[in-house]
Amino acid sequence: MTSVRVALPGHLRTLAGVEAEVRVDVPGAPTITAVLDALEAKHPQLVGTIRDRATKERRPFMRYVACGEDLSREPSDRPLPDAVARGAEALRLGGAISGG
Asked: What integer pLDDT is reported at residue 95 of this predicted model?
């Protein structure tokens, strides 16, 4: 079991009733999918906000950053960087910014 730090944006912190970072226990190698599974299990009020409730597909407006690297377009089953797995760095979730 790996304890992973997850940094949430303000609107998700408010919804979940948590501080800026939460810790979730992830069985096996931490991946985005495994972290989101653990996050939704620990904070069910987040179900449907980060991923589609039925398909579990990541919502296109969400971004995932770890160790300064944007992982948003990476496969969900790609192992997260070692620093995230060790708890030295957080997996940061955020909303995409667009404009024109």
From this structure: 82
